[in-house]
Amino acid sequence: MKVIICGAGQVGWQIARQLSGEKNDVTLVDVNADLVRRASDTLDVQGVVGFASYPDVLERAGARDADMIIAATHSDEVNMVACQVAHSIFSVPRKIARLRAQSYLDAIYSDLYRRDHLPIDVVISPEREVAEAALQRLAAPATFDTESFMLGRAQLLGIQLGEDCPVLNTPLRQLNELFPSLRAIVVGVRREGRLFAPEPGDQLFASDQIYAFVHSEDVNRALEIFGKQNKKQERIVIIGGGNVGLGVARALEARTDRVRAKIIEKNRAVAERAADGLERTIVLNGDGMDMDILMEAAIDRADAVLAVTDDDKTNILAAVRAKQAGCKMSIALVNDPTLAPLMGPLDIDAYINPRATTVSSILRHIRHGKVRAIYSLGDSEAEMIEAQVLSTSPLAGKLVRDVEFPEGVLVGALMKGDKVVKPTGDLRIEAGDVIALFTMAADVREVERLLQVSIDFF
Questions:
Q1: Distance between CA atoms of residues 33 and 50, nearest Å
Q2: In what order do the strands lie in the sheet with 330-333?
Q3: Could you list the pLDDT tens digit for every one of the 458 residues in the chain?
Q4: How far apart are CA 389 and CA 117, in angstroms?
Q5: Which CATH number fits domain 130-225: 3.20.20.80, 3.50.30.40, 3.30.70.1450, 3.30.70.260?
Q6: Phi, psi dihedral angles at 241 (to 5 degrees)
Q7: What's the CA gap between 208 and 210, in Å, rounded?
Q8: In the chain, how long is the greatest CA-to-CA distance?
Q9: Following DSSP, what letter does each residue of 35-73 receive, concatenated?
Q10: Class of domain 235-352
Q11: Phi/psi of residue 189, each to 5°?
Q12: How many CB atoms lie within 10 A of CB 231?
């Protein structure tokens, strides 16, 4: 597949790394020559320096025979025009644009993206994706990571194991014998910084970070088995009143259960905009790093603090200070993945990586086969893929035990009709089923082959 990626920032770089590693023909376009040179030197990609919306620049990037353009520059307008040029002049079949401004995303203006208007096939909104990720973290406070699958009927839970975990030093195959009715599979384990797909004979140890794929009805029971408890969040303090903080607060206000939220925002104009856009949420104008303003927000009685400013260091330090002041749980927005190892030592319970959420959204629309959802884990080390099994797939009609999955691939669950089923060796995979697969990055191409059909679905 020939792909043009506009924008060599964090998201563009990550998508280019992922796609070029899977032997796609990738060209990266950016106005910054240093970023393009860095990408060309480090990745197996071609680089073009110039404005992504200029027709001559896209022509140099090979738009005449490109299969897809992904517009992920820092400018919404450049992304939109790049897609228009790719469609009108070069007839590029598939166009994905990252748009940040909320005005462009308002549902009442959705006609804007019709093929006869502004032909964008998929619009990705990082702020909405991140706000949704933050809400999922708040809904599962005992986890460091969580994502919904199978129409909300299954959850991927990231759980940090402590010394009090009841199933330490127990081979994974024995979990099925100890808890036969538990619909949960440990699909990934991070130990000493390395993520891997575990074997049935592998044991779990204290300080392991595990990824468990769990039926939604069994989430609380699974957490208890792994030594955690889910507590209801009633008092939440949000540090940062921008699009992400505002989106989270609006979603909390829309919930039926009573949640008391407060926002702390340093910029007065942004704070006033947030206050105007909310009904029940209290908005405080001040520095989220200031202990006085934190105490005014009653941080010592808060169930959770969510630090979502546009500065990683502010988010980390504000989360640490809130936790020291007595807040029960802290979540920080962290753009730089190299800061992730600091979360544990600093006692930050969970973090959100905007790049990972945006990359996951884009990958969902790139993967071959009938892919319905993708979640990128770690620094794109692995993926959780949800896909429909089509009649032409090599999986269709086989028992789970008879499928030659690569070593780094595990089945999390199958959904037959509207019922989520725990995978066992004698379970038959049928056309129409929805399958959830954990796959290490090196095995993605083989998983795509297993999900592949006679004609690629894009």
A1: 8
A2: 282-285, 260-265, 235-239, 304-307, 330-333, 350-352
A3: 899 999 998 889 988 988 888 788 999 999 999 999 999 999 999 999 999 999 999 999 999 999 999 999 999 999 999 999 999 999 999 999 999 887 887 766 777 787 778 889 888 888 888 888 888 888 777 888 888 999 989 999 999 998 989 999 999 999 988 999 999 999 999 998 899 999 999 999 999 999 999 999 999 999 999 998 777 788 999 999 998 899 899 888 887 777 889 999 999 999 999 999 999 899 999 999 999 999 999 999 999 999 999 899 999 999 999 999 999 999 999 988 788 888 888 989 888 888 888 888 888 777 665 788 888 888 788 999 999 998 888 899 999 999 999 999 999 999 999 999 999 999 999 999 999 999 998 898 888 888 875 434 43
A4: 34
A5: 3.30.70.1450
A6: -110, 25
A7: 6
A8: 64
A9: HHHHHHHHSS-EEEES-TT-HHHHHHTTGGG-SEEEE-S
A10: alpha beta
A11: -135, 130
A12: 12
Residue 190: closest CA among 225, 230, 144: 144
Q: Which residue type does 91 have?
A: S
Per the listing, tokens 């303003």 go with: 293
Q: Where are the domains of the chain?
A: 2-124, 130-225, 235-352, 357-451
CATH classification code of 2-124: 3.40.50.720
Residues 58, 71: Cα–Cα separation, whole Å:
11
What's the CA gap between 230 and 242, in Å, rounded?
A: 28
Can you tell me which residue has the tokens 């936790």? 323
CATH number of 357-451: 3.30.70.1450
C-alpha span between 388 and 416 (Å, rounded): 10
Ramachandran assignment for 417, one of left (phi > 0), alpha (psi -120 to 50 degrees), beta (any other):
left
Beta bridge partner(s), residue 377? 382
